[in-house]
Amino acid sequence: MKYIDVHAHLDMSRFDEDREDVIQKAKENEICILSSGVNPDANRKVLEYSKKYDNVLCSFGVYPIDAIIKDFPNIEDDGSRKIKSFELEDELNWIKDHRKECVLIGEIGMDFKVVDTTDEIKKMQIKNFERILEFSKEIDKPVLIHSRGAELECIELLEKHKCKKVIMHCFSGKKSLIKRIVDNGWFLSIPAVITRLEHFQMVAKIVPLTQILTETDAPYLSPIVGERNDSTSILITIKQIAKIKEISEKSVSKQILKNAKLVLNLS
Description:
Blueprint: E1 3-8, H1 19-28, E2 31-36, H2 40-52, E3 56-60, H3 64-68, H4 88-97, E4 104-109, H5 119-138, E5 143-146, H6 151-160, E6 166-169, H7 175-183, E7 187-190, H8 198-206, E8 212-214, H9 234-245, H10 249-264
Parallel strand pairs: 1-2, 2-3, 3-4, 4-5, 5-6, 6-7, 7-8
């Protein structure tokens, strides 16, 4: 494979009609897909896909909202998602048993912009995030971080726990925090909405190419408003990064693949 999408959600219902075609399309474009879990059901599905398709890898995650649904059953995230209650420790034990079958832990993190966020909800997210960070170190896996509305807080906890191999997914924080991420030696994954959001154009400009990755967050974050996203849109991202950095697309894709192999411990 020449390219890698380090963050997609192949388990989402929007792929139910043509999931195999989407994966095949990526393969024809020499794209490896890292499909991320967010809860027990999703983790088991992405594991299944990684076993079935040779261009799919999987990561096991516990999304911050899913992790607290047991304690806050009325909290709302994405209206299209039905979140089942589960015990965090039970899922971490399952992940530990299957750790050799995933390449990272993610997505994990904190989300302070979810509907009706209270101080109590924030405290629970912080507690869970710290537990999962310690767990990821125990099983020696890199992490992929969701930090919506909690960019500074996530960075502070990652630093506190001395995390080394970190991917900041779709990071929307200010320049000073981006610099802090770079100084920590972590990676930022850029989505295809770089074509229409100046923030990600700025990220591509100021972050060294050696610390950039490509992601789609498919089916979300399409470069075309209202359309479903898929992993082939990373080719659009690479084109944009090359234009911004004034280098060849080949140089960009080659370095990004090298970055991914480094952070994900791939040969």
